[in-house]
Amino acid sequence: MKIWKYTFIVLILVISLLILALSQLPDSKFHLIACNVGEGDATLIIYKNIHILVDGGPDKRVLDCLGKYMPFWDRTIELVILTHPDRDHFTGLIDVFRGYRIVSFMYNPLTISKPDYKLLEKEVGSARPHTIHPCVDQGLRLDLIYLDTLNPAGCANRVGKHPESKTEVPDSETNAYSIVSLFSFGKFRALLTGDMTPEVSDRLAKEDSIGPLDYIKISHHGSKNGITQNLLNVVDPKIAVISVGKNNYGHPSGEVIQMLNTRMIKTLRTDEGGNIEVVVDKNGPVFLSR
């Protein structure tokens, strides 16, 4: 009897693992997930076996998001983008680099005084990914995903310099260097903005190439020192996502919420809906919150 009992238990475990594995097999849809990491940013993009992580939030909660949406057997992230070196964007990446194989890493070569940023630099040095420094008009393609860099605009400052040379930036001014990325998948277009400043927002509003969007991540957790009316008028997104948690800054700003409501833009917040997933297929985007 005991042998049959153990055999039955093993059989149940094998079946359970098979069901779990089948449920996590990649599909042919484009998935964009705003991870619920509290007062911080982390966005996961998935298409088939390609994974892109933009920012890592303020702590280890980003690992929960990766564990939920990535297959348990897949420990490779094809591209990690750090928009700028603020703790609520980079701290979680320390554990990401420790737990996953990172193929490519896009970041701004900035010199800042935060000691914990040195920990990230150490992990990146150990992982030795292919490093990419952003430049306006720089385009990348990963299968059917197209990525265009719209900010920072200071690429000319690095002409003639060593590729790893760094720009010294006061800790209080890193937002202006936020990497702003336009992701395209078929006709679907999404803008990830980091903590871009109003000055960057207004500059982008004048760009001929930006055009209407399906999706925008509202910069700086909905701070009034981020998205501007000028940019919203130009991009007119169908959905706006605010990555935000408990904070003492008044995020998201009532002024920003009013701007979005006035344009009747569907607005979702991670502090209210948890992880926010957008799934795109040939029929267009489907918005999920869970």
Discrete helix count = 8
- How much helical structure, as a percent, in the residues? 25-40%
In the CATH hierarchy, the architecture is 4-Layer Sandwich
The number of E-state strands comes to 17
CA(first)-CA(last) distance: 44 Å
Shape: globular
Rg, alpha carbons = 20 Å
Give the topology string: H per helix, E per strand. Answer: HEEEHEHEEHEEEEEEHEHEHEHEE
Q: Can you tell me the CATH class?
A: Alpha Beta
CATH fold description: Metallo-beta-lactamase, Chain A
Question: Can you describe what's shown?
Answer:
The structure is a single chain. By secondary structure, the chain is α/β, with parallel strands linked by helices. It has a single domain, classed as 4-Layer Sandwich (Metallo-beta-lactamase, Chain A). The protein is built from 8 helices and 17 strands. An 8-stranded mixed sheet has the order 7-5-4-3-2-1-16-17, with helices on one face. The radius of gyration is 20 Å and the shape is globular. Mean pLDDT is 88; it is low at 16-23 and 156-163.
